[in-house]
Amino acid sequence: MRSKKLVSAIAALTMLSSAFSGLTLTVNAEETTVTATLVHTASAQGGSNEAGTFLDAETHHINLWGTSGWVATGYTEFSLDAPLTDSVKSATLTFSTVSSRGNDRNLDVALLDAETTATIDFESSIDMIEKPANIVASYKDITVAVMTKTVDVTDALADRIASGETRFIFAYANANAGGELYGKASAEYAPKLEIVTTDAAIYDITINYVDEEGETLKTATDSAVDGTMYTPEYETSFNQDGYK
After folding, report:
1. CB count, 10 Å around CB of 63?
2. Nearest CA to 2 among 87, 83, 91?
3. Number of H helices, E strands in the chain
4. Which of 26, 32, 118, 202 is most buried by its number of CB atoms within 10 A?
5. pLDDT tens across the length of the chain (244 residues)
């Protein structure tokens, strides 16, 4: 969706160049923040860990990727009420975690692809998985004190949101000393996914040059990207026919 704005640059029959020297426009589209619904948090553990699956707990145990050894995968599932039609300006995932023992521990966060996401129903089954391809964040600083992390997932989600997708699942593992992912039942640390949209990515701009009687001397068109400073080019003087 493109929004059009009309900008009138008033030019007298003879216009000095200094008359427009300070004309700079800030072009901004209207922004809307959408908070996705946290549908579920989940986890599956096994191998050297006590086997089990957990849904919408206060905390979920996480460990290494895979299905053997010290393995445990955590998940967050988000949904949108309807496809978003406006342009995605930013998307931010917020979650909280803690190491089971020791500081400077590892953690990966992955966004599952659309095909994999479509096969998952956490109310039916929760599985441990191998390391996914799309790692959106990787940490080496997780501590025994609760840490809240924010991840810029704009690039990971923008095209998928634009294509009409409404369901997104993130997976968490590679916690080499074990750890906890705070889940849906946590009153303080439940995960969040916030998406900021704009009602236009580009503005069409029309600049009208008019004389002292308000008659149009010249019209110019241009475009500007949302959020950028726009300085129009302009004619500095006109003869009585409306041209230099």
Report:
1. 26
2. 87
3. 2, 17
4. 202
5. 333 333 333 333 233 333 333 445 556 667 899 999 999 999 999 999 999 999 999 999 999 999 999 999 999 999 999 999 888 999 999 999 999 999 999 999 999 999 999 999 999 999 999 999 999 999 999 999 999 999 999 999 999 999 999 999 999 999 999 999 999 999 999 999 999 998 766 677 777 777 777 777 777 777 777 667 777 665 555 555 555 5
* Distance in angstroms between the alpha carbons of the first and the last residue of the chain: 36
Q: How far apart are alpha carbons 54 and 11 in whole angstroms?
A: 70
Residue 60 in 3-state DSSP? Answer: strand
Q: Residue 8: enclosing H or E segment and its boundaries?
A: strand 3-10
Strand ranges inside 11-69, DSSP E: 25-26, 31-35, 37-47, 52-55, 59-62
Structure tokens at 197: 């949209």
Distance CA(217)–CA(210), nearest Å, equals 5
CB–CB of 161/90 below 8 Å?
no
Who contacts 185 (Cβ-Cβ below 8 Å, separation ≥6)?
Answer: 41, 56, 57, 58
